[in-house]
Amino acid sequence: MIIAGLMTGTSADGLDLVIAEFRPDPISDTEPTPSFDLVGADPTTLTVRILAERETRFDDRLSADILRLLEPADLPLSLVSSVDARLGRFCADALSELCADHDLTPDLVVSHGQTVRHDITDGQVTSTLQLGQPAFIAERLGVAVLSDVRSRDVAAGGQGAPLVGLLDSLLLSDAEAPTAVLNLGGIANITVIAPGHDPIAFDTGPANALIDILARRITDGRQSYDRDGALAAEGTVDEDLLAELLTEPFYARPAPKSTGKELFHAAYLDSYLESHPHLGENDQIATVTVLTARTIAEAVRDHEVTTVIASGGGTRNPELMRRLGEELGEGIALTSTDEAFGLPEGSKEALLMALLGWLSWHGLDGTQPSLTGAIGPRSAGRFTPGDGPLRLPEPLHRRPTRLRLSD
């Protein structure tokens, strides 16, 4: 089964696309690989081959409007509706182009959309909203689209995030020592896999969110992120400001927990910076870069992890990665998903979307209570039919326990 996964994260700078083929391993050495549409296959190992991948940047207007929606302000419903439609068309165009370039036709598309609200009260997620109308994708490609993959988990009392823990746990099902898989998007999240324990996943705090805000300010909007970490590398960490930032109550909350730009936004950052009016801009960005590194390292140490496997846009920031290595110390190895799994850092969350699509298509749960805090596992998302009626295969009985990437 060929599935396209589309992901736009909290950095709100572009769309990651993956087209992947999912196949169960043969039940025995003498039996052929069964079709995904056959009931009873129930593979323990799922083999995935990435057929195509791409990152497509948003145009300036779309990016700016999304960032407006991420700020804690009352905005016109017309902007919400406009972004929903424009992002849906953008996803349809980007995927159509990728399919044409590689002569591929997916059986299913999974589109995460852009999270614009993820509201939390007293540690409980009360609502989550992703924009990017899937009907435009279904109309353009003529295939079914799975979307809104977080809401069912939230309805079941879960955080609805991070969802990537499922992919991490399948990739590391044979881990022999406590390992953390880290994603550095706008928000940082980790999955901790330890032998003999259920996996856990949670957001640790900002990854690029605060760094990006300052990068835009320092460059007067010419850069939307700290390219190569050069801005932070020129600054000096202000320990007083760092200590104040670390008093944020979110960091001390137990897992599972999630957050977003509803908390870590420009006004939030300014509430700390206003007491340091003479601090240089490069010193500011150096300090929030270390904030990201330290909050991750403290979360990792709490779980006695020996290896951290990193992915996401933050891995392209050498200053952030250098600071993270320093904060982790010599006893914890820092590597990447490319080195550990052969999975490009920028493709991981789009591949997660494709995996959730395969699971939901076959009637299997895409969430796990130990990862999100829900009262039970739930199937992820809802389907928008393609050109014809939606016909799902007979459900499988058990979720695979291992995922293997092939060339």
UniProtKB/TrEMBL annotation:
Gene Ontology BP annotations: 1,6-anhydro-N-acetyl-beta-muramic acid catabolic process; amino sugar metabolic process; peptidoglycan turnover
Function: Catalyzes the specific phosphorylation of 1,6-anhydro-N-acetylmuramic acid (anhMurNAc) with the simultaneous cleavage of the 1,6-anhydro ring, generating MurNAc-6-P. Is required for the utilization of anhMurNAc either imported from the medium or derived from its own cell wall murein, and thus plays a role in cell wall recycling.
Keywords linked to the UniProt accession: ATP-binding, Carbohydrate metabolism, Kinase, Nucleotide-binding, Transferase
Pathway membership, UniProt: Cell wall biogenesis; peptidoglycan recycling; Amino-sugar metabolism; 1,6-anhydro-N-acetylmuramate degradation
Binding site for ATP: 9-16
Region (Disordered): 370-407
Protein name per the record: Anhydro-N-acetylmuramic acid kinase
Family: Belongs to the anhydro-N-acetylmuramic acid kinase family.
GO molecular function, one term: ATP binding
Record's compositionally biased regions (Basic residues): 398-407
Superkingdom of this protein's organism: Bacteria
Keyword Plastid: no
Pfam families: AnmK (PF03702)
Entry-linked HAMAP family: AnhMurNAc_kinase (MF_01270)
EC identifiers of the protein: 2.7.1.170
Organism from which the protein derives: Brevibacterium iodinum ATCC 49514
Signal peptide positions on this chain: none
Gene: anmK
Reaction(s) catalysed by this chain's protein: 1,6-anhydro-N-acetyl-beta-muramate + ATP + H2O = N-acetyl-D-muramate 6-phosphate + ADP + H(+)
